[in-house]
């Protein structure tokens, strides 16, 4: 919100030589106008302070306006979406619309439960990732890639080789890792219009995954190999306007499960720690799990990660931590219970247990709780503090 617009008016003080009645009349008009201006300035200042210091109240006001006409139950949930899915179903929330992807169907539903896009597919298994107001759906091992917005289909790609992974950055640019004849793997970058702008071909190492920086200038790709007889993962960097390697970060003895843009660099998720790496290939920070086992991780577009850790490989003794791009804990919380899903977005982290949903802020202070969520299997946090609860046949929006 831009609060820098000034609506001040200039007032004259009149001529002291004028007769008394005219001068008195001008003063009596000036005071109410000045009083109104003072009140307006104070109101703008109060709103600005609320936004800068604690935006949770502002988010609540925004939700009450946006969902004013939504029919809500006694728990504050509005059921907005109905669909046909199965156990393979994947979901993403886009500007109020819901993307549903299963082995047999891709659908985009608006908040009036209208299908703005519906396509029969054969995915085995389906994959879905969302970022920058878009979602990418694809079949791991297939060749088709679908890029979607809240309005429906943006474009499709038919790749030359089998798709291994696909991801979007904050600007809606697409990165696709696929097999290609003569190479171990190929990574291609597409702009927001679906035009190919860069390709990286790996002839000697397999590429596990890749990601594009938030500013769309740097590509990072994870390859595997050995160094002095020890297994290693390599994160290699390229600028999209050059075919020369811009940097490389070696992670000895580590398997990289995921790679995503975080802040001005990247976050590599390994089995032992989170590694924060700059676009030049230099590791800037790391967060060690302290011997705990990684269960789940969700990286917010705000540049922090929510990490769910287990004391043992199985069991419900869990620890939830949030970590910024400096590798510092923002919050830590012991949890007890089966966690079905977790999602970080904006300043909020949603944790779906078998019997309840809890929303925390990024410092892990409890923001809202919803009991009785047995029909939900997935949670999608939204930046305004609301959360989508998705089940096998319907999804609702929890409005704290």
Description:
The structure is a single chain. The two termini are 23 Å apart. The chain has helices at 20-53, 56-66; strands spanning 77-82, 90-94, 97-101, 105-109, 115-120, 126-131, 134-139, 144-149, 152-158, 163-168, 174-180, 183-190, 196-202, 207-212, 218-227, 230-239, 245-252, 256-262, 265-270, 273-277, 283-288, 293-299, 305-310, 317-323, 329-336, 339-345, 348-353, 356-361, 366-371, 378-381, 387-390, 394-398. Strand 16 (230-239) and strand 17 (245-252) form a beta hairpin. By secondary structure, it is mainly β. It is built from 2 helices and 32 strands. The strands form 8 sheets. Strands 1-32-31-30 form a 4-stranded antiparallel β-sheet, with no helix packed on it. Strands 2-3-4-5 form a 4-stranded antiparallel β-sheet, with no helix packed on it.
Compact description:
The protein is mainly β. It has helices at residues 20-53, 56-66, and strands at residues 77-82, 90-94, 97-101, 105-109, 115-120, 126-131, 134-139, 144-149, 152-158, 163-168, 174-180, 183-190, 196-202, 207-212, 218-227, 230-239, 245-252, 256-262, 265-270, 273-277, 283-288, 293-299, 305-310, 317-323, 329-336, 339-345, 348-353, 356-361, 366-371, 378-381, 387-390, 394-398. A four-stranded antiparallel β-sheet has the order 1-32-31-30, with no helix packed on it.
Q: How big is the Rg?
A: 26 Å
**Measured distance between first and last alpha carbons:** 23 Å
Number of E-type strands: 32
Q: What structural class do helix, strand and pairing data support?
A: mainly beta
Low-confidence stretches: 1-28
Share of helix, binned:
10-25%
The number of helices is 2
Mean pLDDT figure? 85
Reported for the largest beta sheet, the result is: 4 strands, antiparallel
What is the topology, as strand order, of the major beta sheet? 1-32-31-30
**Morphology call:** globular
Percent strand:
over 45%
């Amino acid at each position: 919100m831009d609060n820098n617009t000034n609506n001040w008016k200039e007032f004259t003080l009149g001529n002291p030589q004028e007769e008394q009645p005219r001068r008195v009349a001008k003063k009596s008009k000036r005071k109410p106008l000045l009083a109104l201006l003072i009140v307006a300035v104070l109101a703008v200042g109060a709103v600005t302070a609320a936004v800068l210091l604690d935006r949770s109240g502002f988010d609540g006001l925004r939700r009450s306006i946006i969902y004013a006409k939504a029919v809500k139950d006694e728990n504050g949930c509005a059921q907005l979406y109905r669909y046909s899915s199965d156990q393979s179903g994947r979901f993403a929330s886009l500007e109020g619309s819901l993307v549903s992807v299963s082995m047999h169907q891709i659908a985009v539903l608006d908040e009036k439960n209208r299908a703005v896009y519906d396509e029969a597919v054969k995915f085995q298994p389906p994959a879905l990732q969302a970022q920058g107001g878009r979602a990418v759906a694809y079949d791991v091992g297939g060749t088709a890639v679908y890029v979607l917005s809240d309005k429906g289909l943006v474009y499709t790609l038919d790749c030359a080789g089998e798709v291994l992974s696909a991801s979007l950055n904050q600007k809606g640019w697409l990165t696709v890792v696929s097999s290609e004849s003569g190479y171990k793997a190929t990574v291609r970058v597409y702009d927001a219009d679906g035009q190919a702008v860069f390709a990286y071909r790996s002839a000697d190492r397999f590429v596990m995954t890749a990601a594009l920086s938030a500013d769309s200038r740097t590509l990072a790709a994870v390859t595997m190999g050995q160094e002095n007889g020890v297994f290693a993962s390599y994160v290699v960097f390229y600028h999209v306007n050059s075919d020369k390697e811009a940097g490389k970060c070696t992670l000895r003895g580590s398997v990289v499960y995921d790679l995503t843009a975080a802040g001005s660099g990247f976050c590599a998720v390994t089995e032992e720690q989170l590694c924060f790496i700059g676009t030049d290939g230099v590791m800037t920070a790391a967060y060690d799990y302290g011997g705990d086992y990684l269960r789940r991780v969700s990286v917010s577009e705000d540049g922090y990660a929510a990490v769910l850790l287990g004391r043992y490989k199985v069991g419900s003794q869990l620890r939830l931590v949030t970590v910024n791009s400096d590798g510092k804990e923002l919050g830590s919380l012991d949890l007890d219970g089966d966690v079905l899903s977790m999602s970080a977005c904006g300043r909020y982290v949603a944790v779906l247990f078998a019997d309840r949903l809890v929303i925390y802020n990024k410092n892990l202070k409890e923001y809202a709780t919803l009991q009785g969520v047995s029909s939900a299997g997935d949670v999608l946090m939204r930046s305004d503090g609301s959360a989508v609860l998705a089940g096998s046949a319907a999804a609702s929006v929890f409005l704290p």
